[in-house]
């Protein structure tokens, strides 16, 4: 019964999404054609005729109906998880069999734990964004929004079709009768949630990521609507730029939570492995940065029109590419789902259709966009630095995408059929990151169209002095901490030493580090200088005290101040990345298992105090070791107790690593089980500066969130409101 209801709701949602798409695009296109014939701007046309108005209202009603049906589908899965209703195969495969205090929350997260539920959640979120936008603009009769909503509903329909027409994607497939008792309980222990997903970060990581993914649908839809209707003003950007920033916030949060989960749960001691699914989020994040900057230039200065449309399109394509990678089975990943031919064709079709639609629309409107809109007067300007940033971000995103799918490409293509190692990504990413950091440091101090040398150096003097002091401190850290670690890694040997040697000679590696420290120092200095300058300006002009001036700076100028704070956070995170990704000491040791046995890694002495082996309440086998951690002088620093669990149902092992956090580094300890000779295998990593990575990421996200804070209506939308008000007044 539950299976039938869910399938009916999905089918109806598909039909309603298609009907709404046809009605909305048709009403919007008719309205824009009529406006063009009357000489009015497409989005400021008079009230539509009764038939068009009815078509519009019907289209919006079907938007709400499809959203309601998808909401019901998500609700059914959630209720089944909460009530232990095993009539659905998806519930059997993903129900959290655990006695953890977080078990009620795991039941909720089980809704998106599997491939079927995650796709349903993503589809529902896209529909939610469309429904919210339809509600927000329900009183406006602008053709832009109507067509954009129609395009978005086509995307919703395609996603629902992937659910309906693929048994591998359908969350409402019934459970086979032989797996159920007469009372509906499971006949045996089968399936269940992947133990790796039972972590607090995985409760939040997937929905945050999918919110970011879903939000990228609207900028693309509005870009297509602008090309379809011919309204090439900045209005379409003003209608979706806050959605883009909102999505970027959640995409950043999702990536951060995923990094935390990878660091703690997977047991390998890192947080970024250039895995295919990790890359899927990164490439859309990179192009989203370019999109947000392009939107800013489009709204404020009327340039970057093509860039805005292109980045909106490529970001959406990369989002879908991420899904294609995870579900097609063409690219191997520890996060990927099993291969599904239907998903492969559906998502490949979405990517191809989106790209072709953009290219055809751009060719059709080429003459209307203008030839000189994107012309840069001087590269030594904000306009020029934004342009370079866009090029770098888009090229970086495209390169990451290409390297990620290279293993699935024909062998006659560059790197075709080859799996690109993490070292290759690092070799490209690190120099590019340094260039981006330098651009971020210098850009805010440049003039918009052209930079006057005296004015620039007048602003740059103080940040340079501060940057020099920070750089000296960085060099001290480099000489006393990082260089000795580099030598120790080579001395330890093993895979870590091999990976380090692959990055080039020591002189290159050290030079790259020093240049990175210089760029980070400059970015910290300029970001702090601009924030302090803004506070001092308010203190001087408004007579406010320092705390009030700082508060009002973010309240009155959230976009600008939040941007500076974001840049400051990125600089701090980058400093953490230098240590935690370039100078990690990684040693695997073997202990006989005798209490009191010790081993030294770096400045840490680990002493075995106890071992334990038992079965938990779910009959999972758990092995745990307890170790005291002391410094070289014998002073106790802490206690760690890493463990390994082997699931009874699947025999899958999960590692519960232990982390001893100190100001300048983490001691990461993971128990990897027994060696062939019965000794204990323990992996120990010393991760320098990793705390700065988490802190910088949090500060950067806070800056973006503050920039998203409510602000006054943008000029074009405010003008629209005044036009509509005047039209109503004249009608009376």
Brief characterization of the structure:
64% of the residues lie in helices and 9% in strands. The protein is built from 22 helices and ten strands.
Describe it for me?
The chain is of the alpha+beta class and 732 residues long. Among the domains are: 1-203, no CATH class; 424-584 and 692-707, no CATH class; 593-678, no CATH class. 64% of the residues lie in helices and 9% in strands. The chain has 22 helices and ten strands. It has helices at 2-38, 50-83, 89-94, 103-109, 115-136, 143-164, 200-215, 217-229, 235-264, 276-301, 305-328, 341-364, 366-369, 382-405, 422-442, 453-492, 494-502, 506-542, 546-556, 558-582, 690-707, 715-731; strands at 585-591, 598-601, 604-615, 621-630, 636-640, 643-646, 653-656, 658-661, 665-674, 680-688. The strands form two sheets. Strands 2, 3, 4, 5, 6 and 7 form a six-stranded antiparallel beta sheet that branches. Strand 4 (621-630) and strand 5 (636-640) form a beta hairpin. Helix 8 (217-229) packs parallel to helix 12 and helix 18 (506-542) packs across helix 19. The chain is globular. The model is unreliable at 36-41 (pLDDT under 50).
Number of distinct helices: 22
State the end-to-end CA separation: 56 Å
Low-confidence blocks of residues: 36-41
Class computed from helices, strands and strand pairing? alpha+beta
Residues in β-strands, percent:
5-15%
* Major β-sheet profile: 6 strands, antiparallel
Specify the overall morphology: globular
Mean pLDDT: 85
Helical proportion?
A: 55-70%
Count the strands?
10
Q: Radius of gyration, Cα only, in angstroms?
A: 28 Å
């Amino acid at each position: 019964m539950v299976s039938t209801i869910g399938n009916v709701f999905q089918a109806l949602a598909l039909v309603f999404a298609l009907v709404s798409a046809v009605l909305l695009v048709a009403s919007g296109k008719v309205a824009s054609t009529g406006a063009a014939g009357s000489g009015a701007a497409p989005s400021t046309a008079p009230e539509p005729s009764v038939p068009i108005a009815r078509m519009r209202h019907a289209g919006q009603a079907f938007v709400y109906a499809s959203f309601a049906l998808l909401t019901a589908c998500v609700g059914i899965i959630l209720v089944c998880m909460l009530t232990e209703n095993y009539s659905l195969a998806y519930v059997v495969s993903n129900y959290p069999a655990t006695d953890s205090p977080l078990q009620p929350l795991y039941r909720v997260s089980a809704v998106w734990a599997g491939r079927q539920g995650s796709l349903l959640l993503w589809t529902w979120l896209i529909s939610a964004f469309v429904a919210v936008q339809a509600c927000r603009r329900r009183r406006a009769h602008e053709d832009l929004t109507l067509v954009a909503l129609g395009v978005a509903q086509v995307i919703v329909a395609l996603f629902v079709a992937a659910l309906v027409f693929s048994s591998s994607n359908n969350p409402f497939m019934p459970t086979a009768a032989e797996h159920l008792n007469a009372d509906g309980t499971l006949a045996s222990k089968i399936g269940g949630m992947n133990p790796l997903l039972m972590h607090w970060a995985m409760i939040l990581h997937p929905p945050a990521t999918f919110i970011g993914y879903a939000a990228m649908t609207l900028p693309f839809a509005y870009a297509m609507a602008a090309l379809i209707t011919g309204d090439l003003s900045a209005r379409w950007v003003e209608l979706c730029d806050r959605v883009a920033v909102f999505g970027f916030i959640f995409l950043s949060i999702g990536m951060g939570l995923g990094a935390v989960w990878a660091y703690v749960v997977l047991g390998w001691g890192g947080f970024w492995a250039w895995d295919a699914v990790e890359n899927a989020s990164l490439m859309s994040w990179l192009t989203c940065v370019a999109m947000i900057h392009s939107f800013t230039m489009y709204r404020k200065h009327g340039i970057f029109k093509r860039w805005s449309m292109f980045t909106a399109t490529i970001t959406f394509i990369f989002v879908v590419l991420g899904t294609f990678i995870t579900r097609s089975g063409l690219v191997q990943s520890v996060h990927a789902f099993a291969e599904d031919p239907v998903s492969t064709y559906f998502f490949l079709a979405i990517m191809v259709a989106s790209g072709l639609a953009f290219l055809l629309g751009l060719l059709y409107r080429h003459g209307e966009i203008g030839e000189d809109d994107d012309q840069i007067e001087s590269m030594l300007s904000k306009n020029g630095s934004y342009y370079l940033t866009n090029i770098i971000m888009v090229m970086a995103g495209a390169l990451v995408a290409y390297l990620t799918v290279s293993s699935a490409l024909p062998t006659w293509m560059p790197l075709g059929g080859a799996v690109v190692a993490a070292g290759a990504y690092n070799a490209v990413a690190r120099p590019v990151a340094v260039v981006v950091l330098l651009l971020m440091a210098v850009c805010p101090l440049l003039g918009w169209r052209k930079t006057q040398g005296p004015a620039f150096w007048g602003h740059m003097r103080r940040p340079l002095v501060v940057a020099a002091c920070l750089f000296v401190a960085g060099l001290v850290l480099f000489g006393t901490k990082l260089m000795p670690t580099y030598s120790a890694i080579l001395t330890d040997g093993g895979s870590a030493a091999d990976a380090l040697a692959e990055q080039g000679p020591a002189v290159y590696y050290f030079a790259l580090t020093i240049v990175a420290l210089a760029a980070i120092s400059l970015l910290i200095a300029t970001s702090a200088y601009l924030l302090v300058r803004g506070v001092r300006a308010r203190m001087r002009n408004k007579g406010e005290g320092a705390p009030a001036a700082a508060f009002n700076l973010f309240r009155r100028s959230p976009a600008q101040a939040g941007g500076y704070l974001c840049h400051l956070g990125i600089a701090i995170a980058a400093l953490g990345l230098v240590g935690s990704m370039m100078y990690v000491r990684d040693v695997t040791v073997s202990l006989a298992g005798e209490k009191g046995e010790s081993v030294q890694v770096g400045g840490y002495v680990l002493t075995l105090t106890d071992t334990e082996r038992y079965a938990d309440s779910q009959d999972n086998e758990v092995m745990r070791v307890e170790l005291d951690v002391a410094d070289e002088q014998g002073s106790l620093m802490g206690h760690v107790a890493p463990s390994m669990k082997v699931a009874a149902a699947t025999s899958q092992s999960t590692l519960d690593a232990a982390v001893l956090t100190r100001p300048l580094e983490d001691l990461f300890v993971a128990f990897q089980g027994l060696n062939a000779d019965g000794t204990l295998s323990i992996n120990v990593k010393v991760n320098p500066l990793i705390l700065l990575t988490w802190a910088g990421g949090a500060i950067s996200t806070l800056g973006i969130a503050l920039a998203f804070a409510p602000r006054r209506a943008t000029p074009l939308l405010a003008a629209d409101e005044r036009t509509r008000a005047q039209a109503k007044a004249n009608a009376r």
